[in-house]
Amino acid sequence: MKNLSVACLVCVSSFLFNSSSHAALMGWDNVKNATGNVGNIVTDGSLFDAVTMFSSDLTVNGVDFTGNASSSGGAVTFGTSNISFNGVASTQNYGSPAPSSWDSGYRDLVNNGAWHANGFNMVINNLTLGEEYLVQIWNPYWDSNWKTDYCTGTSCSGDVNHGVGSSAISQYVTGSFIADSSTQTIFAAPGSNSYGLPSSIQVRSQ
User: Fold this and answer.
1) Are the C-beta atoms of residues 135 and 127 closer than 8 Å to each other?
2) pTM attached to this predicted model
3) Cα separation of 69 and 137, whole Å?
4) pLDDT digits over 27-47, tens only?
5) Cα separation of 163 and 177, whole Å?
């Protein structure tokens, strides 16, 4: 079920304060638990771009994620990818990995993260005006379930959990938007326990 309501006033105010980039309103689907089954990775439409904080490129369920990110002064880039992050405090792996029973590529997909206690912007460039896009974002396994909300303007996903050993399961969320600019900004906002902290994101043309 799409959610176009104001899901989190903290997320919205943080987004408005931190973002100077454009953001078309997104409709968010319900947050889901990551299961380690590659069927979680959406393959509808055609791949526009995908990146991961893992230390190398990954292919999971036929989706190619660009890894090996470069970080400088809070800006994180992924080679020639159309996706970049701005305002990041650090990129790293911290805490227990996903369960060993998971698909190995899926485990790597949620192994590393980029974070900031005040949140940061995830920017998608070179979009086609009028095109519908689907975004899928994963949170990593970490030392604690900090929770992150993903926001565009007045629309937020609600808390998306981080995995913590056997005590919390990592989650992912999907959302869609129609591009009214060549750029879309998604704010990775601190959730109820603080920290904006995603691990991977893919964008698909619908």
Assistant:
1) no
2) 0.91
3) 17
4) 999 999 999 999 999 999 999
5) 27
- How far is it, in rounded angstroms, from Cα 46 to Cα 94? 32
Give the 3-state secondary structure of residue 4: coil
Q: In the beta sheet, which residues pair with residue 47?
A: 204
**Per residue in 8-32, pLDDT tens?**
444 444 444 344 568 899 999 999 9
Reference 138, options 79, 58, 77, 197; nearest CA is: 197
Residue 154 CA: distances (Å) to CA of 43, 151, 178, 198: 27, 7, 15, 20
Query: DSSP letter string over 163-193?
Result: BBTTTB--EEEEEEEE-SSS-EEEEEEE-TT
